[in-house]
Predict the 3D structure of the following.
Amino acid sequence: MKWPTLAWRTWRVARTGVFIWGLYKWPSAWQAWGEGDSTHRDRVHERAAQAVLDCALEMRGVIIKTCQAIATRSDVFPKPFVEVLKQCHDSVPACDFTVVRQVVEEELGKPLDTLFAEFDREPLASASLAQVHRARLLDGREVAVKVQYPGLEDLVGLDLTNVQLACRIYEYFDPQPIALLPLLKEITDHLEMELDFTREADNADRVREIFGEGEGVVVPKIYREWSSRRVLTMELVEGIKITDATALEAAGLDLELVVQDLMQIFVRMIFAAGFFQADPHPGNLMVQPNRDTVVLDYGLCKQLPDGFGMGLFELLFSMMTVNESAMVRAFTELGFQTADGDTDVLLMIARRMIGRSDTGRFEGEFTEEMTDELFEAIRENPLVDVPTDFVLVGRVFTFLSGIAHTLGHRANVLAAMGAGA
């Protein structure tokens, strides 16, 4: 793949940064902002986010991945920003097969024809960092081969330095209530993990160990002999896309049980094992005709700190029972902090979350409305430390809630915990 020149990449990020800074500082923007014109404010956010998206799609690679990470941080960025940058999760144009062949042969040290009996030229899927091809090993095993785009590691340092510089300049002229540089450091750490496919292979093996044989969870086997830092060869598994209700019902599957299975899988990873696949989306989840759930893509997995699962359970239970002192205690145990130590802010956030329910208490489901209310409250108040672990877990359960609603059911966390006990 031919990437734009290094100088051009620096200029492109700088141009976008200047445009966005001017967009927010232009008199018509801040005047309407001061008048509380939320409609105008959202339009400004959308224009800024679109500029970032255009830059990412033009530069691809690391910048797209950074935007994907931003789209998961509803606690920091306005909703219009998150909604626009979600488009970065869509497929990107595939890399030419000659480049794919070159990467595989360089990484595995042999001609492609001596490694695989067949290797499809057209990819099954293409994304920000890699694309996946169907292939067959010499012994007949069907596999999926994930191939990282060449040159990415050389661009990581430059692109992240450019973004870091933009953050420093922006915060110098316009200090932010939530520091952007620590967030960028977090994104950098995740990106470095995802660029190392040996780590992804380790993650997949670890998740597979969480679920025993016959428990209805399929994690593709990794073939280490045909894998490296930039090539990952795994068992080819197929199934029905988890949001395809028509196909699931045609296969004789009960949609309520499909939702129940999915919830129990993530509840077990998060609450029991403390290690989970932290980047789920419809393309990563399938269901087989025997009701086994296929979970793909382990580039981003998260090890939760000791006690996190218990702290999260206490928060959910306290919101269900409307125990306000327990809510505050649970938020604190999970790592939430305020600038002045005022716990009333945490209580206000909890009240706003459960206020989204018709009953005035948590009923077991992380709906999109509830998490939107949480993150809106966080942006409006002086929280200086929002635990990333909570953001990732909240995002996962919100996503599961969306899938459940697509299938006509609810994703109840507490019910899944009880069913899996």
In short: The mean pLDDT is 82. The two ends are 49 Å apart (CA to CA).
